[in-house]
Design brief:
mainly alpha, about 0% strand
Length: about 70
């Protein structure tokens, strides 16, 4: 159900936030989010990390929460 989806998304976000190869991409995405450039952050994640649009949006939303 929805709870399982949330767990899956949380795991994916956690993997993406801790994967060493992706540190630079994630730092760039965080910078874009801080600047309010959410669409650019989503594009960066889909292009550079190969995640789906939905996953990229979820990551950006998590980054927004982190501030």
């Amino acid at each position: 159900g929805n709870n399982e989806l949330c767990k899956h998304v949380a795991e994916k976000i956690s993997e993406n936030l801790t994967h060493p190869r992706s540190d630079l991409v994630m730092q760039s995405a965080e910078g874009l989010v801080r600047e309010g450039r959410h669409i650019d952050a989503v594009k960066l994640l889909t292009n550079e990390k190969g995640v789906s649009l939905t996953e990229a949006k979820n990551i950006v939303n998590e980054l927004k929460k982190k501030g």
